[in-house]
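ok, trying the design again with the full structure, not the truncated one.
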């Protein structure tokens, strides 16, 4: 039994690393493709005709954005239902594992919806310089560029270190949504410190 468990763990970790490596390759490929649009992160100027066109497209896109965001968030919320059902009944351990898999599958669909629609929305915001990409926010993002790199590399190291040491891969994923929320807190603190420094 122990040999079977070790074999299953080895297969699971191997598959995880394969998936992570594929994801890394995709990140690099698409990151390089998008690198030519990095100038949009900086301050840009567009003519009135282009601005009117983009504003119209953004308005047409708004309903699609709201719908997909609502579906994505809803799926993330209900993703814990399989785990709740498994805990409500006395089930075998392998059934619990299946329920965890179902939960992560639902989360992945929800996150996919949120990320895809957010990327498009960010594109409109970058061009129109609204929302998270207002002129003041863009300047702040430029200043926080190194902070972002340090922060996310640290979070990744913590995630992998904790997961490999404890083997709690089914629970350690919670680090990512927490890190996303906490990043906003870190940026707000840094912004406040910077404002006080230059007063």
């Amino acid at each position: 039994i122990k040999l079977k468990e070790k074999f299953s763990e080895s297969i699971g970790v191997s598959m995880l690393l394969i998936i992570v490596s594929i994801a890394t390759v995709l990140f690099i490929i698409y990151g390089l493709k998008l690198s030519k649009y990095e100038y949009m992160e900086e301050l840009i100027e567009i003519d009135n005709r282009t601005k009117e066109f983009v504003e119209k497209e953004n308005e047409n896109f708004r309903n699609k954005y709201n719908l997909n965001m609502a579906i994505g968030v809803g799926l993330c919320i209900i993703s814990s239902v399989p785990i709740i059902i498994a805990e409500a009944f006395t089930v075998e351990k392998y059934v619990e594992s299946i329920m965890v898999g179902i939960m992560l599958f639902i989360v992945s669909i929800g996150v996919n919806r949120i990320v895809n629609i957010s990327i498009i929305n960010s594109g409109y915001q970058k061009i129109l310089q609204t929302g998270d990409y207002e002129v003041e926010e863009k300047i702040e993002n430029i200043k926080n560029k190194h902070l972002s790199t340090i922060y996310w590399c640290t979070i990744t190291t913590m995630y992998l270190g904790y997961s490999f040491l404890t083997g709690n891969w089914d629970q350690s994923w919670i680090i990512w949504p927490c890190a996303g929320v906490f990043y906003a807190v870190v940026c707000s603190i840094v912004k406040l410190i910077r404002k006080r420094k230059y007063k």
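Keeping the full-length input from now on. The two ends are 66 Å apart (CA to CA).
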